[in-house]
Amino acid sequence: MLRLSEIRLPLDHARSALPAAVADRLALPTADIQQLSVFRRSHDARKASAPMFIYSVDVEVPDEAGVLRRFAGDHRLQATPDMRYQCVGRAPATLATRPIVVGFGPAGIFAALVLAQAGFRPIVLERGKAVRERTQDTWGLWRKKVLDPESNVQFGEGGAGTFSDGKLYSQIKDPLHYGRKVLVEFVKAGAPEEILYVAKPHIGTFRLVGMVEQMRREIERLGGEVRFRQRVSGLQIERGRVRGVTLSSGEEVSGEQVILALGHSARDTFEMLHRAGVFMEAKPFSIGFRIEHPQSLIDRARFGPNAGNPLLGAADYKLVHHCRNGRSVYSFCMCPGGTVVAATSEENRVVTNGMSQYSRNERNANAGIVVGITPLDYPGGPLAGIALQRDIETRAFELGGGTYEAPAQLVGDFLAGRPSTRLGSVIPSYQPGVRLTSLASALPDYAIEAIREALPAFERQIRGFAMPDAVLTGVETRTSSPLRITRGADAQSVNVRGLYPAGEGAGYAGGILSAGVDGIRVAEAVIRQALAQAAPRLASGSEHGGCAAGDDEGQGGG
Fold first, then answer.
1. Exposed, middle or buried: residue 75 (CB in 10 Å: 0-12, 13-18, 19+)?
2. Is 269 exposed, middle or buried (0-12, 13-18, 19+ CB in 10 A)?
3. For 351-364, what is the mean pLDDT?
4. Residue range 136-147: average pLDDT?
5. With 60 as the cut, is the pLDDT of residue 540 above it?
6. Burial status of residue 268 (CB atoms within 10 A of its CB: 0-12, 13-18, 19 or more)
7. pLDDT for residue 166
8. CA-CA distance, 162 to 137, in Å (whole number)?
9. DSSP class of residue 487?
10. What is the mean pLDDT of residues 34-54?
11. CA dihedral over 528, 534, 540, 541, signed as positive or negative
12. Which DSSP state fits 492?
């Protein structure tokens, strides 16, 4: 097949317009279009009076080689790459122990799935609860101000991404198309097929719950084991090699390959790893607030007279400003038509995050407005970033009144340097509620200064962004992991063999898609190591078998 890109059509185009446009571009009769599937669809709303859909399609025509020769040098036409997932091998019969996966968020799910599809029967240890029980516990904080430290937005089946917008796009380099594998598996688990071709796919929390359950059932069907309420409290290390893990119950689980897919909030586990001597280092992350506007304001700013068009959906944005004090402020995890949610995993602390359902039809838009910081801002070793996060989150708890309500301030008051005393036209969505105050002491002075400079700059890009009634809710501290569990080219810890740091908590991903991709990469590293240990000739790939499932993805989408 051929992949043809940059085909522009009006939003209201007829179904027949796409094959006609393809035939016209290729200078062929429409009858020669033997097969056509949409690989990617985005929209361009920069010209508000005439927004367009932009398509990339995979098309089958006679004499494809001849067509490629005729259009040589045209970057918009190429042979369609083979994006089907290729397994690296099957579990050897001589496998001594089953691989252990610690954590069952996106990285852990895809690591376990790929291992199960290759016959490795992984053991998954998740400290939290199954996703539906976990959902009830999360609502307990949102509705009743009762926190379960082991079952919340951060911990439990599906990881932190379950309570988010469910964004499935990333800017990672992905030459082997692992991202396609992630999307295909999600569709198999119940996601809408449109995630295979829309430019910025998302799923939403309600759909993610059922999908996560289905993927767990598939792992178990293939021989894997998923165990909940199993917090890893220790590593068994002998002569620089991992031999298993110890659970908080005292049980020991043997394993010569341990994947650490912890998520960015497993602070007690990071501390345990540090005590055990596992090499890690501090890394940059960001801190800030959540901002809420009426979604209709963002729609009008982005889409003009086409605001509200169901074909365009709820508008999003991505903003960045480089400040005079050397800091960068940017929008993070923008959630169109969503809500701000309580996301703490530790008692007496307040953390915010954003969440949307698939429909994205709530009243407000929200996003993190965050300031980049580096280890120079929190010297003291690999755990110093965690200490800073805790200090900020504790201060937010105090400013919110000590009841898990969040401190909040109107943008107009924040810019003027005065406390807020009453709400305006924007009603904050955060549950269990907000307490109006001044946020000036919620973050370090350099961060407050940077955000105060950035908001008027963002107003110049999105009219109304600095509206006085917009609401800032504090605090956003868990934008990414504050440390990296450093690994080598073979994906193993640089000083503990058999230990495989993975995903966002290890510092190698940011978001659902990239975490899933990293889980696949690490699972493949485990498979290669096991094959090399079992038989060098198998490691060469000459006698690898296929996967039990998941190796039949199509090349196109839509």
1. exposed
2. buried
3. 92
4. 93
5. no
6. middle
7. 77
8. 14
9. B
10. 89
11. negative
12. S
Of residues 250, 193, 185, 245, the one with CA closest to residue 214: 185
**By CB neighbour count within 10 A (0-12 exposed, 13-18 middle, 19+ buried), where does 402 fall?**
exposed
- Token pair for residue 178? 């692992």
d(CA 89, CA 539): 8
pLDDT in tens, 292-328: 999 999 999 999 999 999 999 999 999 999 999 999 9
Average of per-residue pLDDT values in the chain:
93
| Neighbour-count burial for 487-505, b at 16+ CB within 10 Å, e otherwise | beeebbbeebbbbbbbbbb
Among candidates 13, 25, 174, which has minimal Cα distance to 2?
A: 25
- 340, 292 Cβ separation under 8 angstroms: yes
pLDDT mean over 267-290 = 97
Average pLDDT, integer, range 418-426: 97
48 pLDDT more than 80: no
Question: Position of tokens 């609401």?
Answer: 471
Find the helix or strand (DSSP H, E) in which 271 lies: helix 267-275
The predicted structure's pLDDT at residue 555:
45
Please state the three-class secondary structure of 183-246 as a single string: HHHHHHCCCCHHHHCECCCECCHHHHHHHHHHHHHHHHHCCCEEEECCCEEEEEEECCEEEEEE
Strands 252-254 and 364-373 come out as: unpaired
Pairing of strands 471-476, 285-294: antiparallel
How far is residue 243's CA from residue 245's CA, in Å, rounded to a whole number? 7
pLDDT in the model for residue 248: 96
Say what angle helices 384-399 and 267-275 make with each other, to 10 degrees: 150
Instruction: Give the Cα separation of 340 and 361 in Å (integer).
Output: 14
Q: Rounded distance, CA 412 to CA 31, Å?
A: 60
